[in-house]
Specification:
about 270 residues; alpha/beta; Rossmann fold; 2 domains; 6-stranded mixed beta sheet; 4-stranded antiparallel beta sheet; 9 helices; binds adenosine-5'-diphosphate; binds magnesium ion
Length: about 270
């Protein structure tokens, strides 16, 4: 195991330094995953650049969560490997923030106490992080709710709390698994815009899982399309739309061209 890890440390550094390109933040290398005899993912291969907003788009059941949980180190691949920075992912890491489909807040803790949870779990300095938590609650319009309990909040507000919680430790990488899919369409649009605003400020590397073509096109620098099981990557599309993006961009022809491209990639795979 050790010699293998050492080899990972060396190679990307040399080659990318020579080319003058920043090393990718995340590399998924020929990753496959089987659950018993169900083959969920077949040889997924992609890299995510530092600061890039990447979406993984595909129909439900195609293996998106499986892939994301392997990047998070919460699930081990059957074969292949995930490398973050220069390190092989072999378990959960402190420098990754994860936002799940449902916000999973602790019901007996206030909003502020929920946001501070990772700080406590990782024994990080409290003062500095309370300040950061306040800032995050302010930009997500939750300032006045810091001392409320989750049950006093709407679904959208709870999901914003879980985003604050993922960001409070200033993770290098933010992984989001269909974080807005339980929300109504209007709230969902608002949350998307808020997420982009946060991303514009903090510039994390983001991997965002969604089954919504428009959501992927609106948010992302790049969209990876996954086909049906066993899932492979069927398209990799760069979304070259200007930023910051307002919702009105969805009415433009370039936006809708991307939507068509993504839809065709999904449908082409369906036909097989
Ligand atoms: N723990 C598990 N045990 C067995 N099969 C699983 C498990 N988790 C997911 N699967 C199967 O793997 C496939 C991909 O699931 P998942 O990654 O959740 O897809 P998605 O997130 O795209 O909806 C599905 O067919 C699902 O039934
Ligand atoms: Mg899923």
């Amino acid at each position: 195991m050790l010699p293998k890890a050492a080899a990972i440390d060396e190679t990307p550094n040399r080659s990318t330094a020579a080319a003058g390109i920043a090393a990718p933040a995340v590399r998924v290398e020929s990753v496959s995953k089987a659950y018993g005899d169900i083959e969920a993912i077949r040889r997924a291969d992609f890299a995510v650049a530092e600061g890039e907003f990447l979406s993984i788009l595909g129909p439900s059941g195609c293996g998106k969560s499986t892939l994301l949980m392997m990047v998070a180190g919460l699930l081990g691949p059957s074969s292949g490997r995930v490398v973050i920075g220069e390190r092989l992912v072999d378990g959960p890491r402190a420098d990754i923030g994860v936002v799940f489909q449902s916000p999973v807040l602790l019901p007996w803790r206030t909003v502020m106490e929920n946001v501070m949870l990772p700080v406590e779990m990782q024994h990080l300095p409290r003062e500095a992080h309370v300040r950061r938590a306040r800032e995050l609650l302010a930009v997500t319009h939750l300032e006045e709710f810091a001392n409320r309990l989750p049950r006093e909040l709407s679904g959208g507000m709870r999901q914003r709390v879980s985003i604050c919680r993922a960001l409070v430790i200033d993770p290098r990488i933010l992984l989001m698994d269909e974080p807005f899919s339980a929300l109504d369409a209007i709230t969902r649009d608002e949350m998307g815009q808020e997420l982009l605003r946060l991303w514009q400020i903090h510039r994390k590397t983001v991997i965002f899982v969604t089954h919504s073509i428009r959501e992927a096109a609106f948010l992302s620098d790049r969209v990876i399309v996954m086909g049906r099981r066993p899932a492979t990557i069927v398209a990799d599309v760069r979304i070259d739309l200007p930023r910051p993006r307002a919702l009105s961009i969805e009415e433009t022809e370039p936006f809708n061209r991307y939507v068509r491209t993504l839809r065709q990639a999904i449908e082409a795979n369906h036909a097989h």
